[in-house]
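Let us work through a complete example step by step.
Step 1: write down the sequence.
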Amino acid sequence: MNGLVLLGTGLATFCGDTHELLQVVGWVLTILKIVIPLAIIVLGLIDLGKAAISSKPEEIKKSVTSLAWRAVGGVLIFFIPTLVMVVFGFVGQFNSATSSERSDYAICRACVETPWSDGCHGH
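Step 2: predict the structure and record it as tokens.
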């Protein structure tokens, strides 16, 4: 038996019932996907500055390569949550869910992707 049903929450209304929690998760993800890439790039620039001050060409080359990889990592970290939600959106379109379940999924998606939007509210 479904544990959510035992708690009084059905799967068809799960997102609407938990929209406040999902909104907090959305805000945390939004903050992290901005702060982490910026921190990675700033730390890489600091390392590059240290290498430039040392005036050793091999250290500068190593720091530039490291900064490039950090920048790629920062961009990937920024876009991974969005890509995951797009994939789940494609999968969600091909299921046999009822229209009420699809609208409930829209609440989940809105709360995680854009927690500040009007779409993130339970009915």
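Step 3: interpret the result. The mean pLDDT is 79.
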